[in-house]
Design a protein that fits this description.
heterodimer, A: 113 residues, mainly beta, 6-stranded mixed β-sheet, 0% helix, B: 116 residues
């Protein structure tokens, strides 16, 4: 079992729709959860982080965390073609320490105009 | 805040030569920096963790004598690919963090290495 699992996609949604990206993790001790966006040929860019169960909203993005189910998701409302990218879920296994994040393999999102 | 630069952005070299890549945190101090490599359409692979003033910690399977890491200051880490071969061609990305009040890691723009 991978430590952080994501469906590779592609996830295709029409412009203006809600894109829902999902991630599960295996380590119950994980405390910090991050979503990165990576455009083709570019490096990852941090877009959201969440520590507590529930929802966290930032503009069109909402991160959702359910530690009991070991599940974290990212919702993108009013999807735009510019949102087309690979979205990486990352988990910090030791909370806010200095250990590197564990990344999922990413979900490719395609927003159709 | 949380800007990380990386230089060069692209390098082409001949087989057998060494290539140095610099990673700088521009607006925050990062006691820890990380080096990743990524092959086309593949996920990030952590190579090593670099701590300021101490030896880097390499992931299993990464040759420390081939990928030399130096973290001489709180804002600069370097990766040297020694005696590069075509199979070392990849996208190398550094990251820094967390910083004070800055959770997560912040990535440099990456260096695309092509070894002929």
């Amino acid at each position: 079992q991978k430590e952080v699992e994501q469906n590779s996609g592609p996830l295709s949604v029409p412009e203006g729709a809600i894109a829902s990206l999902n991630c599960t993790y295996s380590d119950r001790g994980s405390q910090s959860f991050f979503w990165y966006r990576q455009y083709s040929g570019k490096s990852p860019e941090l877009i959201m982080f969440i520590y507590s169960n529930g929802d966290k909203e930032d503009g069109r993005f909402t991160a959702q965390l359910n530690k009991a189910s070991q599940y974290v998701s990212l919702l993108i409302r009013d999807s735009q073609p510019s949102d087309s990218a690979t979205y990486l879920c990352a988990v910090n296994r030791v909370g806010t320490g200095r250990r590197a994040l564990t990344f999922g393999s990413g979900t490719r999102l395609q927003v159709q105009p | 805040g949380a800007v990380v630069s990386q230089h060069p952005s692209r390098v082409i070299c001949k087989s057998g030569t060494s290539v140095k890549i610099e990673c700088r945190s521009l607006d925050f101090q990062a006691t820890t920096m990380f080096w990743y490599r990524q092959f086309p359409k593949k996920s990030l692979m952590l190579m090593a963790t670099s701590n300021e003033g101490s030896k880097a910690t390499y992931e299993q399977g990464v040759e420390k004598d081939k990928f030399l890491i130096n973290h001489a200051s709180l804002t600069l880490s370097t990766l040297t690919v020694t005696s590069a071969h075509p199979e070392d061609s990849s996208f190398y990305i550094c990251s820094a963090g967390p910083g004070r009040n800055l959770p997560g890691e912040f990535f440099g723009p990456g260096t695309r290495l092509t070894v002929l």
